[in-house]
Structures are given as structure tokens and as C-alpha cells.
Amino acid sequence: MTFSPITHLRHVDLAVPDYRKQLDFYTSTWGLTKVADDDGIAFLAAEGSPEQYIVRLRRGDKRMDLVAFGAASAADVDALAERLIAAGVTIVREPGDLDTPGGGYGLRFFDVDGRVVEVSSDVAVRQHRRVEERESIPVKLSHCVVNSPDPDRMRAWYAEHLGFRLTDTLWSPHMGDLMYFMRCNDWHHSFAIARGPHASLHHASFEMRGVEEYMRGTGRVKRAGAKLTWGPGRHSAGDNTFSYFHDPHGNTIEYTTELERILDEDAWHPGIHDITDPLTADQWGTADPMSESVAKEQFNDPDVLFSPPPV
Questions:
Q1: Counting beta carbons within 10 angstroms of the beta carbon of residue 112, is it exposed (0 to 12), middle (13 to 18) or buried (19 or more)?
Q2: 17, 79, 122, 267: which has the fewest C-beta neighbours closer than 10 Å?
Q3: Positions of the region Disordered (predicted)?
Q4: Measuring CA to CA, which residue among 158, 148, 103, 109 is closest to residue 308?
Q5: pTM greater than the 0.90 cutoff
């Protein structure tokens, strides 16, 4: 049986030079709630999520500090550490108590591309609430997508070491496989790997209450002056809506809703979605067609690899 220690996506951590500008955008414009802010580090929660925070911002040179996932128990964290060490994976922080909001028990390590991954258990549940009808703020962090110059190797690594399963593939008759959608629970994807010129954050996606709230949020962020790079539309793989924006430092972030769920694991067979079919990118036909210029908007700057963040 495949070892599958990962239960869900927890948070994405970003470092940026203009910390105050980024913090203001994510709270005042994007709709997250600051739960802690201390000496250039802020922890931002979604009102509808039990996670203590879903984005961490840090003052520093631009980079993706880490992506964090949940585990069911401390025993699973320890078992994961043992397996990673045996496989020769570099551990950044040995399993131990966490000093971030909600506490918990976790470890950090490098993935095969060199980005930092955190896996934790026993984090206290945050008091959250139901997001109301027409309230256009994120309910939770939906998924994280990264760019990789070798997505085949990345897909195999996350499947072997973290137990992610392939759900669907975006494919081009000229370029081959372009994106792998990976799941760790019954959501279509919590993580995805895109073919890119370098390792970087492709986008982080935030779930809205429903289509009405998703559209209101899209309009609100547009009116605030954020750059809409693609959307609104509805993807084929995952069947979710999409509106992609750039934050003040050029990271792509997405409003989405109604992501597909895989309720019968045994009956699911990964599909191949041809991007030359217009319905693959956008079932509605409301967004600009997928093009090289649209794809480049998600390449981002090359990330800092095999170098852990200071905190």
C-alpha cells in the first residue's frame, strides 16, 4: 500500500521586499484576516477556514519560502521523516514542536526541485465562521501550483514520498504534458505541477463561497486596480472557475470555486486534457484564449532553491 501521510494543504509562505504594501493588499483587497504581525512577519487567515493561517508574509528578498501540508498525527510526521531520511532527502528541520500560530508538530525538507516543504500535525483549530451569502472573501486556500523545469520528475517524487495521486493531465500535441493535477484527499487537486522555464510559484488559489461570491470578488479586486491576467472563466480539468491576478510583487493568485471532488477513488481514471481544445482552458468562453502570453504571466521569477528561509 502507498504511504500517504498528507491530509490537506495548510498554507503558502511568501517573502517580499515591500512587506507593508503586500500586507495591505492581502488584507484590504484580497480579503484575508491578519491574525499576527510581528517584526516583518504576518500570518493571514481565511474567515471560513479552520487553519490558523493560509498565507504567511515575510519581509525579505522575493521568494516562495515554503508550501505546507497537514498530516493526521505526530506518528505520521515521524514516519515520514524516517522514510525521507532513508531515501536521502535533505531534512531542513527535524520533527519537533512548531512555534507558529496554533503550535503543532512538524518537519521541513527540500523537495526534488529544492523548494522547502513543511508537513505538520496537531495544529490547533482556529475559530472560524460561515462566510455569508454575497460576501466576496476567501473561504479557504484551495490549491497551490508550482512551476518546474522537470515536471515528470516532480510528479514521481511527490507520488513516491508524499503519496500524492495523479488526477488529470494538461497536454499539448506539440509540447507534451504541461501540468499534472495531484490530490491528497477527495478534492480534484490540492497541488499541481506545471512545466515552466524554472522552479517558481505558478499560483496560489483561494476558494470562494460560490459563483456569486467569486464574481463579486473578481470585480472588487479589479476595481481596486490589481492586474487581472486571465479570467473569469471555468476550467475543464477540475471544473472550477478561475480569475487570475498578480499581487503587488508579481505572484499569481486566483479566486476559484466549485472545484470537483473525487468521491469514488477506485472508479477514477486520470484524464488527459488537450489544451488545443478551447473548452479545456475555459468551458464558458468568457476568458481570453490560452496563449503563450497568458502562460508567461504565471512563470514568475526564478525561486531560491536548496536554501531554507530564516524563519
A1: middle
A2: 267
A3: 289-311
A4: 109
A5: yes
User: Residue 262 burial (CB < 10 Å; 0-12/13-18/19+)?
Assistant: middle
Nearest alpha-carbon partner for 47 in 134, 127, 109, 164: 127
How many Å apart are CA 282 and CA 307, to the nearest integer?
37
pLDDT at position 25, please? Answer: 98
Instruction: Check residue 3 and give its pLDDT.
Output: 82
One-letter-per-residue 3-state SS of 34-63: EEEECCCEEEEECCCCCCCCCEEEEECCCE
> Within a 10 A sphere around the Cβ of 96, how many other Cβ atoms?
11
- Pairing state between β 271-274 and 252-256: unpaired
Nearby residues of 243 by Cβ (< 8 Å), 6 or more positions away: 214, 217, 218, 221, 228, 230, 231, 232, 233, 254, 255, 256
Q: Cα(256)–Cα(297) distance, rounded to whole angstroms?
A: 18
Q: Where are the domains of the chain?
A: 6-121, 140-296
**Residue 26 in grid coordinates:** 492581502
How far does the chain reach from its first CA to its final CA, in angstroms? 35
Is residue 110 within 8 Å of 92, Cβ to Cβ?
yes
Q: What is the SS3 assignment for 193? A: strand
SS3 state at 306: coil
What is the distance between the alpha carbons of residues 57 and 30, in angstroms, rounded to a whole number?
14
Check for a shared fold between 6-121 and 140-296.
Answer: yes
Mean pLDDT calculated for residue range 237-254: 98
pLDDT digits (tens, 9 = 90+) for 135-178: 999 999 999 999 999 999 999 999 999 999 999 999 999 999 99
Return the H-helix or E-strand segment holding 158.
helix 151-162
Give the architecture-level CATH label for domain 6-121. Roll (3.10)
